[in-house]
Write a structure and sequence with these properties.
- With about 350 residues, the chain is an alpha/beta fold.
- The protein is built from 13 helices and ten strands.
- The chain has an eight-stranded parallel beta barrel with strand order 1-2-3-5-6-7-8-10, surrounded by eight helices.
- Helix 2 links the parallel strand 1 and strand 2.
- It is globular.
Protein backbone atom coordinates (compact mmCIF):
# COMPACT_ATOMS: atom_id res chain seq x y z
CA UNK A 1 0.00 0.00 0.00
CA UNK A 2 1.22 3.48 -0.83
CA UNK A 3 2.64 5.20 2.27
CA UNK A 4 1.20 8.56 1.22
CA UNK A 5 -2.26 6.97 1.13
CA UNK A 6 -1.71 5.50 4.58
CA UNK A 7 -0.65 8.77 6.16
CA UNK A 8 -3.69 10.61 4.77
CA UNK A 9 -5.90 8.59 7.13
CA UNK A 10 -5.66 9.99 10.64
CA UNK A 11 -5.84 7.72 13.67
CA UNK A 12 -6.83 8.69 17.20
CA UNK A 13 -7.61 6.85 20.44
CA UNK A 14 -10.72 6.52 22.61
CA UNK A 15 -9.97 5.13 26.07
CA UNK A 16 -12.51 4.00 28.66
CA UNK A 17 -10.13 2.91 31.45
CA UNK A 18 -11.23 -0.75 31.30
CA UNK A 19 -10.77 -2.67 34.54
CA UNK A 20 -9.33 -6.17 34.15
CA UNK A 21 -10.45 -9.03 36.38
CA UNK A 22 -7.95 -9.38 39.21
CA UNK A 23 -6.92 -5.73 38.90
CA UNK A 24 -8.30 -2.47 40.35
CA UNK A 25 -9.93 0.74 39.08
CA UNK A 26 -6.89 2.69 40.33
CA UNK A 27 -4.62 0.59 38.14
CA UNK A 28 -6.97 1.05 35.19
CA UNK A 29 -6.68 4.84 35.51
CA UNK A 30 -2.90 4.60 35.70
CA UNK A 31 -2.99 2.39 32.61
CA UNK A 32 -4.84 5.19 30.79
CA UNK A 33 -2.07 7.68 31.58
CA UNK A 34 0.55 5.23 30.32
CA UNK A 35 -1.49 4.55 27.19
CA UNK A 36 -1.75 8.27 26.40
CA UNK A 37 2.03 8.63 26.63
CA UNK A 38 2.47 5.54 24.48
CA UNK A 39 0.17 6.56 21.63
CA UNK A 40 1.53 10.12 21.61
CA UNK A 41 4.99 8.69 20.92
CA UNK A 42 3.52 6.49 18.17
CA UNK A 43 1.97 9.46 16.33
CA UNK A 44 -1.75 9.15 17.06
CA UNK A 45 -3.59 12.46 16.70
CA UNK A 46 -6.00 12.58 19.66
CA UNK A 47 -6.53 10.86 22.98
CA UNK A 48 -10.13 10.96 24.21
CA UNK A 49 -11.52 9.72 27.53
CA UNK A 50 -15.10 8.49 27.92
CA UNK A 51 -17.61 9.07 30.75
CA UNK A 52 -19.35 6.08 32.31
CA UNK A 53 -21.00 5.74 35.69
CA UNK A 54 -21.33 3.03 38.37
CA UNK A 55 -19.61 0.28 36.39
CA UNK A 56 -17.08 -2.27 37.66
CA UNK A 57 -16.04 -2.59 34.02
CA UNK A 58 -14.98 1.01 33.22
CA UNK A 59 -13.18 3.24 35.73
CA UNK A 60 -13.38 6.67 34.09
CA UNK A 61 -16.35 8.60 35.50
CA UNK A 62 -14.73 12.05 35.23
CA UNK A 63 -12.85 12.49 31.93
CA UNK A 64 -12.07 16.13 32.71
CA UNK A 65 -9.96 15.07 35.71
CA UNK A 66 -8.14 12.44 33.69
CA UNK A 67 -7.46 14.95 30.91
CA UNK A 68 -5.92 17.38 33.40
CA UNK A 69 -3.54 14.67 34.58
CA UNK A 70 -2.77 13.33 31.11
CA UNK A 71 -2.11 16.83 29.79
CA UNK A 72 0.70 17.18 32.32
CA UNK A 73 2.16 13.83 31.21
CA UNK A 74 2.10 14.58 27.45
CA UNK A 75 3.06 17.49 25.24
CA UNK A 76 1.64 17.33 21.70
CA UNK A 77 -1.31 14.94 21.37
CA UNK A 78 -4.79 16.50 21.39
CA UNK A 79 -6.84 15.62 24.47
CA UNK A 80 -10.60 15.38 24.64
CA UNK A 81 -13.76 13.94 26.11
CA UNK A 82 -15.48 11.13 24.34
CA UNK A 83 -17.64 12.54 25.74
CA UNK A 84 -19.08 14.73 28.44
CA UNK A 85 -22.71 13.67 28.98
CA UNK A 86 -24.21 17.16 28.83
CA UNK A 87 -27.72 16.36 30.21
CA UNK A 88 -26.11 15.76 33.63
CA UNK A 89 -24.53 19.22 33.86
CA UNK A 90 -25.12 22.92 33.36
CA UNK A 91 -23.54 24.35 30.19
CA UNK A 92 -21.72 27.08 32.14
CA UNK A 93 -19.96 24.56 34.38
CA UNK A 94 -18.87 22.49 31.37
CA UNK A 95 -17.65 25.65 29.62
CA UNK A 96 -15.62 26.68 32.69
CA UNK A 97 -14.13 23.21 33.10
CA UNK A 98 -12.97 22.95 29.51
CA UNK A 99 -11.81 26.55 29.36
CA UNK A 100 -9.59 25.66 32.32
CA UNK A 101 -8.18 22.70 30.39
CA UNK A 102 -7.76 24.93 27.33
CA UNK A 103 -5.87 27.51 29.41
CA UNK A 104 -3.56 24.79 30.72
CA UNK A 105 -3.03 23.09 27.35
CA UNK A 106 -3.90 25.67 24.65
CA UNK A 107 -4.63 24.35 21.18
CA UNK A 108 -4.88 20.75 22.41
CA UNK A 109 -8.39 20.40 23.89
CA UNK A 110 -11.44 18.78 22.27
CA UNK A 111 -14.82 18.99 24.02
CA UNK A 112 -16.80 15.98 22.84
CA UNK A 113 -20.44 16.25 23.91
CA UNK A 114 -22.80 13.29 24.30
CA UNK A 115 -26.50 12.92 25.04
CA UNK A 116 -26.61 9.40 26.52
CA UNK A 117 -26.67 8.84 30.30
CA UNK A 118 -23.42 6.85 30.45
CA UNK A 119 -25.02 4.39 32.86
CA UNK A 120 -28.26 2.66 33.82
CA UNK A 121 -31.62 4.27 34.67
CA UNK A 122 -30.93 4.47 38.42
CA UNK A 123 -27.59 6.21 37.82
CA UNK A 124 -29.25 8.55 35.33
CA UNK A 125 -31.79 9.51 38.00
CA UNK A 126 -29.06 10.11 40.57
CA UNK A 127 -27.19 12.33 38.10
CA UNK A 128 -30.25 14.24 36.93
CA UNK A 129 -30.20 18.04 37.24
CA UNK A 130 -33.96 18.13 37.98
CA UNK A 131 -35.72 15.79 40.38
CA UNK A 132 -38.75 15.69 42.66
CA UNK A 133 -42.41 16.16 41.79
CA UNK A 134 -43.53 16.42 38.15
CA UNK A 135 -44.04 20.15 38.66
CA UNK A 136 -40.35 20.57 39.49
CA UNK A 137 -38.98 17.99 37.13
CA UNK A 138 -37.67 18.47 33.64
CA UNK A 139 -40.54 17.53 31.36
CA UNK A 140 -38.80 17.62 28.00
CA UNK A 141 -35.48 16.91 26.35
CA UNK A 142 -33.60 20.20 26.51
CA UNK A 143 -30.35 18.91 24.99
CA UNK A 144 -30.53 21.22 21.91
CA UNK A 145 -31.03 24.22 24.21
CA UNK A 146 -28.14 23.08 26.39
CA UNK A 147 -25.87 22.67 23.37
CA UNK A 148 -26.75 26.13 22.03
CA UNK A 149 -26.10 27.64 25.46
CA UNK A 150 -22.75 25.86 25.77
CA UNK A 151 -21.60 27.17 22.39
CA UNK A 152 -22.73 30.68 23.34
CA UNK A 153 -20.79 30.55 26.62
CA UNK A 154 -17.65 29.36 24.84
CA UNK A 155 -17.87 31.86 21.98
CA UNK A 156 -19.65 34.88 23.45
CA UNK A 157 -22.72 34.32 21.31
CA UNK A 158 -25.50 35.59 23.58
CA UNK A 159 -27.49 38.64 22.33
CA UNK A 160 -26.92 41.81 24.34
CA UNK A 161 -30.45 41.60 25.77
CA UNK A 162 -29.84 38.09 27.13
CA UNK A 163 -28.98 38.10 30.87
CA UNK A 164 -26.18 35.57 30.26
CA UNK A 165 -24.42 38.02 27.94
CA UNK A 166 -22.98 39.59 31.11
CA UNK A 167 -21.53 36.29 32.36
CA UNK A 168 -17.75 36.20 32.02
CA UNK A 169 -16.56 32.64 31.45
CA UNK A 170 -13.21 32.17 33.13
CA UNK A 171 -10.41 31.56 32.54
CA UNK A 172 -10.61 33.88 29.54
CA UNK A 173 -7.68 32.63 27.45
CA UNK A 174 -7.33 33.21 23.69
CA UNK A 175 -9.03 30.63 21.52
CA UNK A 176 -11.44 27.94 22.65
CA UNK A 177 -11.82 24.17 23.04
CA UNK A 178 -12.89 22.47 19.82
CA UNK A 179 -16.50 21.29 20.31
CA UNK A 180 -17.53 17.92 18.81
CA UNK A 181 -20.92 16.22 18.88
CA UNK A 182 -20.90 12.49 19.55
CA UNK A 183 -23.63 10.04 18.72
CA UNK A 184 -24.79 6.74 17.30
CA UNK A 185 -28.03 7.71 15.59
CA UNK A 186 -29.52 9.83 12.84
CA UNK A 187 -30.71 12.29 15.48
CA UNK A 188 -27.13 13.13 16.43
CA UNK A 189 -26.11 13.37 12.78
CA UNK A 190 -28.87 15.89 12.14
CA UNK A 191 -28.03 17.88 15.28
CA UNK A 192 -24.32 18.05 14.37
CA UNK A 193 -25.24 19.24 10.87
CA UNK A 194 -27.65 21.91 12.16
CA UNK A 195 -25.19 23.23 14.76
CA UNK A 196 -22.29 23.18 12.30
CA UNK A 197 -20.22 20.96 14.59
CA UNK A 198 -17.72 18.23 13.77
CA UNK A 199 -19.24 14.80 14.33
CA UNK A 200 -17.94 11.55 15.83
CA UNK A 201 -20.09 8.47 15.20
CA UNK A 202 -19.83 5.55 17.68
CA UNK A 203 -19.64 2.75 15.12
CA UNK A 204 -18.13 0.37 17.71
CA UNK A 205 -21.33 0.79 19.76
CA UNK A 206 -23.90 0.53 16.96
CA UNK A 207 -22.90 0.07 13.35
CA UNK A 208 -26.28 -0.29 11.66
CA UNK A 209 -26.75 3.43 10.94
CA UNK A 210 -23.13 4.40 10.26
CA UNK A 211 -23.38 5.00 6.51
CA UNK A 212 -26.74 6.77 6.69
CA UNK A 213 -25.61 8.99 9.59
CA UNK A 214 -22.35 9.97 7.90
CA UNK A 215 -24.02 10.75 4.58
CA UNK A 216 -26.86 12.68 6.24
CA UNK A 217 -24.40 14.76 8.25
CA UNK A 218 -22.27 15.69 5.23
CA UNK A 219 -25.26 16.47 2.99
CA UNK A 220 -27.01 18.68 5.58
CA UNK A 221 -24.07 20.45 7.24
CA UNK A 222 -24.61 24.17 7.80
CA UNK A 223 -21.68 26.36 8.93
CA UNK A 224 -22.30 28.00 12.30
CA UNK A 225 -21.14 31.65 12.42
CA UNK A 226 -20.68 31.37 16.19
CA UNK A 227 -17.86 28.88 15.60
CA UNK A 228 -15.75 31.36 13.67
CA UNK A 229 -12.79 30.81 16.02
CA UNK A 230 -12.71 27.18 14.93
CA UNK A 231 -12.98 28.19 11.24
CA UNK A 232 -15.57 25.45 10.83
CA UNK A 233 -16.89 25.97 7.31
CA UNK A 234 -17.09 22.37 6.11
CA UNK A 235 -18.24 19.08 7.64
CA UNK A 236 -15.69 17.01 9.54
CA UNK A 237 -16.60 13.51 10.68
CA UNK A 238 -14.84 10.54 12.15
CA UNK A 239 -15.92 7.09 13.25
CA UNK A 240 -15.10 5.36 16.52
CA UNK A 241 -14.20 1.72 15.87
CA UNK A 242 -12.96 -1.22 17.90
CA UNK A 243 -9.53 -2.53 16.89
CA UNK A 244 -7.41 -5.39 18.15
CA UNK A 245 -4.08 -6.06 16.41
CA UNK A 246 -1.78 -9.01 17.08
CA UNK A 247 1.15 -10.63 15.29
CA UNK A 248 -1.03 -13.56 14.20
CA UNK A 249 -4.71 -14.06 13.51
CA UNK A 250 -4.77 -16.85 16.09
CA UNK A 251 -3.49 -14.48 18.80
CA UNK A 252 -5.99 -11.79 17.80
CA UNK A 253 -8.80 -14.36 17.96
CA UNK A 254 -7.61 -15.46 21.41
CA UNK A 255 -7.53 -11.88 22.75
CA UNK A 256 -10.95 -11.20 21.21
CA UNK A 257 -12.51 -13.78 23.53
CA UNK A 258 -12.41 -11.11 26.25
CA UNK A 259 -14.19 -8.61 23.98
CA UNK A 260 -16.80 -11.13 22.83
CA UNK A 261 -17.72 -11.94 26.42
CA UNK A 262 -17.74 -8.24 27.36
CA UNK A 263 -20.19 -7.49 24.54
CA UNK A 264 -22.40 -10.42 25.54
CA UNK A 265 -22.40 -9.39 29.19
CA UNK A 266 -23.29 -5.79 28.36
CA UNK A 267 -26.36 -6.98 26.47
CA UNK A 268 -27.35 -8.77 29.69
CA UNK A 269 -26.67 -5.64 31.80
CA UNK A 270 -23.65 -7.35 33.35
CA UNK A 271 -20.86 -4.79 33.94
CA UNK A 272 -18.21 -7.02 35.53
CA UNK A 273 -14.50 -6.34 34.79
CA UNK A 274 -12.82 -7.58 31.61
CA UNK A 275 -12.26 -11.35 31.78
CA UNK A 276 -9.00 -12.95 30.70
CA UNK A 277 -9.10 -14.79 27.36
CA UNK A 278 -9.09 -18.13 29.19
CA UNK A 279 -11.88 -17.07 31.55
CA UNK A 280 -13.86 -15.68 28.63
CA UNK A 281 -13.46 -18.81 26.51
CA UNK A 282 -14.70 -20.95 29.38
CA UNK A 283 -17.77 -18.78 29.96
CA UNK A 284 -18.52 -18.43 26.25
CA UNK A 285 -18.48 -22.21 25.84
CA UNK A 286 -21.86 -22.23 27.55
CA UNK A 287 -23.34 -20.19 24.71
CA UNK A 288 -23.80 -20.92 21.04
CA UNK A 289 -21.56 -19.55 18.29
CA UNK A 290 -21.15 -15.79 18.09
CA UNK A 291 -24.01 -14.08 16.31
CA UNK A 292 -22.93 -12.75 12.94
CA UNK A 293 -23.02 -8.97 12.76
CA UNK A 294 -25.58 -7.49 10.40
CA UNK A 295 -23.57 -4.38 9.64
CA UNK A 296 -21.78 -3.19 6.52
CA UNK A 297 -18.50 -3.11 8.43
CA UNK A 298 -17.50 -4.90 11.65
CA UNK A 299 -17.73 -2.88 14.83
CA UNK A 300 -14.45 -4.45 15.92
CA UNK A 301 -11.58 -4.99 13.47
CA UNK A 302 -9.44 -7.85 14.81
CA UNK A 303 -6.50 -9.62 13.23
CA UNK A 304 -3.01 -9.07 11.93
CA UNK A 305 -1.90 -5.50 11.21
CA UNK A 306 -2.29 -6.02 7.46
CA UNK A 307 -5.83 -7.36 7.85
CA UNK A 308 -6.88 -4.52 10.16
CA UNK A 309 -5.29 -1.91 7.89
CA UNK A 310 -7.11 -3.30 4.86
CA UNK A 311 -10.44 -3.24 6.69
CA UNK A 312 -10.05 0.32 7.91
CA UNK A 313 -8.86 1.57 4.52
CA UNK A 314 -11.88 -0.05 2.83
CA UNK A 315 -14.28 1.53 5.32
CA UNK A 316 -12.53 4.88 4.93
CA UNK A 317 -12.78 4.78 1.14
CA UNK A 318 -16.39 3.59 0.96
CA UNK A 319 -17.74 5.96 3.63
CA UNK A 320 -15.35 8.87 2.95
CA UNK A 321 -14.01 8.83 6.50
CA UNK A 322 -10.75 10.70 7.02
CA UNK A 323 -10.17 9.80 10.66
CA UNK A 324 -10.84 6.88 12.97
CA UNK A 325 -10.82 7.06 16.76
CA UNK A 326 -9.79 3.60 17.89
CA UNK A 327 -10.98 1.79 21.01
CA UNK A 328 -9.01 -1.27 22.12
CA UNK A 329 -9.88 -3.41 25.15
CA UNK A 330 -7.75 -6.30 26.37
CA UNK A 331 -7.37 -8.04 29.71
CA UNK A 332 -3.58 -7.57 29.66
CA UNK A 333 -2.54 -3.87 29.41
CA UNK A 334 0.64 -4.93 27.60
CA UNK A 335 -1.44 -6.51 24.83
CA UNK A 336 -3.32 -3.24 24.42
CA UNK A 337 -0.08 -1.25 24.11
CA UNK A 338 1.19 -3.80 21.61
CA UNK A 339 -2.01 -3.56 19.55
CA UNK A 340 -1.60 0.20 19.16
CA UNK A 341 2.08 -0.23 18.29
CA UNK A 342 1.24 -2.71 15.53
CA UNK A 343 -1.52 -0.45 14.23
CA UNK A 344 0.81 2.55 14.07
CA UNK A 345 3.40 0.49 12.20
CA UNK A 346 0.79 -0.78 9.76
CA UNK A 347 -0.12 2.81 8.84
CA UNK A 348 3.44 4.12 9.13
CA UNK A 349 2.18 6.97 11.30
CA UNK A 350 4.45 10.00 10.94
CA UNK A 351 4.02 12.08 14.10
CA UNK A 352 4.41 15.40 12.34
CA UNK A 353 1.49 14.61 9.98
CA UNK A 354 -0.79 13.25 12.72
CA UNK A 355 -0.29 16.32 14.92
CA UNK A 356 -1.07 18.78 12.10
Amino acid sequence: MDVKQQSSLRLSVLDQSPVASGSTPSQALRNSVALAQHVEALGFRRFWMSEHHAMDLLACTAPEIMLARIGAETSTIRLGSGGIMLPHYTPLKVAETFRTLHALYPGRIDLGIGRAPGGGPIEATALRRYRGTPAGALQHDDFPDQLAELIAFLHGGFPEAHPFSRVRVSPDAPGSPDVWLLGSSLWSAQAAAEFGLPYAFAHFFSGESTRHAMEHYRENFQPNPELREQERTAPEAMAAVGVLCAETQAEADRLMQSVRLLQLRIRQNDRRPVASPAEAAAELSGYGPAERERTEFPRYFAGTPDKVRAGLMEMSARLKIGEFVVNTITHDPAARLRSYTLLSEAFALPAEVQAA
